[in-house]
Please model this.
Amino acid sequence: MIIQPKVKGFICTTAHPDGCAEYVKRQIETTKACGPMNGPKKVLVIGSSTGYGLASRITVSFGCGADTLGIMFEKPATARRTATPGFYNTQAFEKAAAAEGLYAKTINGDAFSEEIKAQTIETIKKDLGQIDCIIYSLAAPRRTAPDGITYTSALKTTQGSFTEKSWVLKDNTIETATIGPATEEEITGTRKVMGGEDWILWIRALYEAGVVAEHALTIAYSYIGPQLTYPVYHEGTIGLAKKHLYDSCTALNQEFADKGLTARISVNKALVTQASSAIPIVPLYFALLYRVMKDHGLHEGCIEQMNRLFKDKLPAKDAALDEEGQIRLDDWEMKPEIQEEVMKRWEKVNSSNLLELADVEGYWEDFYHMFGFHFDNVDYDRDIDLEAQ
Ligand code: NAD
Model:
């Protein structure tokens, strides 16, 4: 089969195995170019196959020389459908890690379930003994919790409707979009899926099984962003869930203080990932931000962010924390000169000047790369046997 991108709205329903391998290879090269990093040596990455989790896994492996166990929820190929990009990314990652003598196994299943937690613990006991770092990087639409209820997350406001400019991805026009307020059920659902409850369950299960080393680190990722997107992000359903994640971080530090655990939230930069491109209004902010940050020489992708986390921010310990105790990898995004310029452009942007004011091309390049497309050195005419991959 000749694999081509099939884009539907903010998702691409195909992925290219060679392109995904190239995507991973480039991230490994970027990491190696940073030189060796002092960091964890045995790492569990929950949500390891795409976006920030994949970049974290690559960083600890090829920067810190860590053995990694990954958890992901991805689909393998069938006779007629390609695998999901995370599946191909992980195949490529495992191969590259093995070539350098690094342990890299991945469990494909529902991280929210007790079965996958138990399987993970068995694997750690058998292969790694104890782990010294747990990265929690899940972004999921739903979660079946231990109470048996399946909760669904929503991207809505919590205080009335919000109307703002929005980029219509299919024809590069600007229109206004309105996001309505969430119901109580949607607020609860989002908190259950994207809050910190499951993070706490993971850490407890790992400690109870005795598979966490003394003075371990656990880290989860958050986002704040500019005032402009507060109604849909920071003060929206997802923002309330992130507040719960933050409170869970505080709770973990207290509960496991005697074990020397350090729990951290890293507030990362806005980037095109499978999870983030689904949020309305936000892609226009991303495209404007990309343009301004590139013009200032400050643009970073997931891998540059994670390299900076492990190379600079984590070794700096308390010195890298804001007054709320969070790591701020969004420091460059939030620089006043960047935000002022983005907001100026936001005011001006319309259907006729979008391509000039925003980095539409850069947005789409990131988007296609996520699915393994649009790499200039990949042969997209190659006939691929889907099931042999
Ligand atoms: P992503 O969609 O690229 O990655 C999600 C990962 O979770 C994948 O590895 C996927 O396989 C895994 N996953 C999803 N459901 C699962 C399940 N039930 N069981 C096992 N694995 C499952 O998302 P991302 O953008 O990298 O987000 C990761 C974290 O980073 C989230 O907490 C997100 O809020 C945060 N973050 C994202 C941005 C951004 O702009 N993208 C910015 C700051 C923080």
Observations:
- The CA atoms of residues 25 and 373 lie 14 Å apart.
